[in-house]
Amino acid sequence: MLLATRHRxxxxxxxxxxGRVSTLPTVWSHxxxxxxxxxxxxxxxxxxxxxxxxxxxxxxMFLNDAFDAEFDRLHxxxxxxxxxxxxxxxxxxxxxxxxxxxxxxxxxxxxxTGAWVAILVICILLHDAIHKVIGFAPLLLAACRFFLYLVxxxxxxDGVTGLAIWSALALAMYVTGxxxxxRHEGSKAAVPFWPAYLLLAPLLLSPLLNSGDYRxxxxxxxxxxxxxxxxSVRLTYWVADRNVSRSVSAxxxxxxxxxxxxxxxxxxxxxxxxxxxxxxxxLLFQRFAPEV
Length: 292
What we know:
Helix content is 74%, strand content 0%.
C-alpha cells in the first residue's frame, strides 16, 4: 500500500489526464474559426467564448471517464479512476462543476448563444452517457463540434451565417470519419476505408465557397490539408505495420487545418499564422501533455 501511494502521480497530473488537455488547441481553433465566420467582433466576448468552450470541453472529458468507470475497471485499468488516483465521486463533481462554469460563461453572451449552448451541452452529455453502447457515437461527437462552431458564430457580429453552417457541416463530416477510425485503435481487424472518404468533406466544400481573388489561396490551403490527410491515413492504410493511434492523433491535430481552410482564404495573413500557431501547439500538446 505504501508503495502504491509513493508511486501515485500528483493530483494535478491526474486532473490533466482526465481533462485530456492535449486536444484543447483544436477547441480554441474552432472558437476562432466559428467567430470569424460569424463576422468577428469585440475581443472580450471572444475571450469569454474561448474560456467557456474550454470549460465545456474539459467537463465532457471528465464526465466521459465518470460514465465509463465500470467499463474502464474491466478494460482500461490504467485510467485514473480504476487506478485509484481519484474517486468516482470527485470526477462527477469536477465534471459537473466545469459544465456549470462553462455554461454560465457562455450564456451571459446572449440569448441566442444560450440556446445553442443548451443544444451543445445535451450533445456532450448524450455522447458521454451512451457512446460505449451505440454504433453511431461518432455522430454525436461530430454534433458537439458542429454546435461549438455555431455557438462561436452566434457570439460574433453577424451571428450564425450560412457559411458558418456549411463549414460546421464539413467539420462534422471530418470528425465523423475520424471517430470511426478511432474505433479501430488497438484492433487487429481490417480497417474499412469508407471513414477516410468523410475526411475529404472540407476539401470538397472549400472550392465551392471560394471564388475570384480567394480561389488560389483556397486551393493552396486545400493542398496543405490534403497532404496532411495523406500523411495521416498512410499510417493506417498504406504501411505494413499500421498504427491507427498515430493516424488518429495526426488527424486530430488536422482539425486546426480544417478550420484554417474554412476561413483562411478570405482573412489577413496574420489569421493564417495564428491558425498555424494553434496547429503547432496541438502537435506539441500531443507530445508533452500527460496522457494515460
